[in-house]
Design goal:
Layout lengths: L3 H34 L8 H7 L5 H10 L8 H37 L2
Amino acid sequence: MIAARHVLLAVSILIIISGSVWLAVHVFQLIKIDAAARHIKHGNWLWPLISVSGQNSSGLLLYFIKRRKYPADYSAEDKAAAVKLKKAIYKGLVIQLIGGLLLITWLYLTVALH
């Protein structure tokens, strides 16, 4: 029979992965809107893809350095969409935090029971 702590481990990993995917999708969309508003070349696909790739957020840092040269020209729809995406990004971070707390709980239970 599967122990409860194994289920907790699986659930916490699934929550962390789903939060990561949620976060990557919404950061991609936010960078796409920002790059289009700043009229950055290849802003529809290249810069959003670079910004979400990499494990240490070096692509996002590179995009932030690149965008300093371009002034923002947001429409009202773009501003509203950006605010909505930022809220979704916060939700993704909270999802990852919950998954991390469950993973820490699993680790504690594993160490405490042995």
